[in-house]
């Protein structure tokens, strides 16, 4: 019998993947409560708690007891404006959220990383993702699931030109390089949340597509 998460902490609920994941969580009858801090208000729901503000400032005040935490935080260099600002979100904020989730009792963290994440990568983006993965592992999670999706496919409120241009090509690529629809990714994350394996699991994009079908 799978260990079903009932109380969930979610970061990044207004992002492309996060909004699909939140919708899935709120439609799961076994989920009793979702705490999703965001910068802009979410649609109200009986099982949703939605503190509004900057996540870094909200983290210390978050309270409750949680089974699992999902981290869908992420930006781009263009959006962030500098390497330092990018690192502040995709590294520092991710680690701070994960640490707070651990303090609130979560035993399973599921985090969205990136295809090619490697702390030794010569590419800044994948190097930061790899460094973040390594430091999440050092936090001592009983269960840590790292999802490494390829190009995300789905309509954003604020379209990213680079993603829009790359999306058709990504659908022609083989294996883990093939683009993944955000609805599929959200389903895969939920199925991974039901797994009882302890330790660290890294899930590449081709496996995420299979899990999310």
Describe the protein in words.
This protein is α/β, with parallel strands linked by helices. It has a single domain, classed as NAD(P)-binding Rossmann-like Domain (Rossmann fold). Helix content is about 40%, strand content about 15%. It has helices at about 15-25, 55-60, 75-80, 85-105, 125-140, 160-170, 180-195, 205-210, and strands spanning about 5-10, 35, 50, 70, 110, 145-150, 150-155, 180, 200-205. The strands form two sheets. It has a seven-stranded parallel β-sheet, sandwiched between helices. Helix 1 (about 15-25) crosses helix 7, helix 4 (about 85-105) packs parallel to helix 5 (about 125-140) and helix 7 (about 180-195) packs across helix 8 (about 205-210). The longest helix is centred in the middle third of the chain and has 21 residues, at about 85-105. The protein is globular and about 45 Å long. Its main location: membrane. Keywords: Membrane. InterPro entries: Epimerase_deHydtase (IPR001509), NAD(P)-bd_dom_sf (IPR036291). This is Nucleoside-diphosphate sugar epimerase. It is found in: Membrane.
């Amino acid at each position: 019998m799978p260990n079903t998460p009932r109380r969930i902490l979610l970061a990044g609920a207004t992002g492309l993947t996060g909004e699909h994941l939140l919708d899935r969580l709120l439609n799961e009858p076994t989920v009793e409560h979702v705490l999703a801090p965001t910068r802009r208000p979410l649609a109200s729901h009986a099982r949703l708690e939605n503190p509004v503000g900057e996540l870094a400032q909200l983290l210390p005040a978050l309270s409750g007891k949680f089974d699992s935490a999902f981290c869908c935080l992420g930006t781009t260099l263009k959006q962030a404006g500098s390497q330092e600002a990018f690192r502040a979100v995709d590294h520092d904020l991710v680690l701070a959220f994960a640490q707070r989730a651990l303090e609130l009792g979560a035993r399973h963290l599921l985090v969205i990383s990136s295809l090619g994440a490697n702390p030794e990568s010569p590419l800044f983006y994948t190097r930061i993702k790899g460094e973040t993965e390594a430091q999440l592992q050092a936090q001592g999670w009983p269960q840590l699931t790292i999802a490494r999706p390829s190009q995300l496919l789905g309509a954003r409120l604020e379209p990213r030109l680079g993603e829009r241009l790359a999306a058709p090509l990504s659908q022609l690529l083989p294996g883990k390089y093939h683009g993944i629809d955000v609805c599929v990714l959200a389903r895969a994350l939920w199925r991974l949340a039901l797994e009882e394996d302890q330790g660290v699991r890294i899930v590449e994009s081709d496996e995420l597509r299979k899990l999310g079908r």
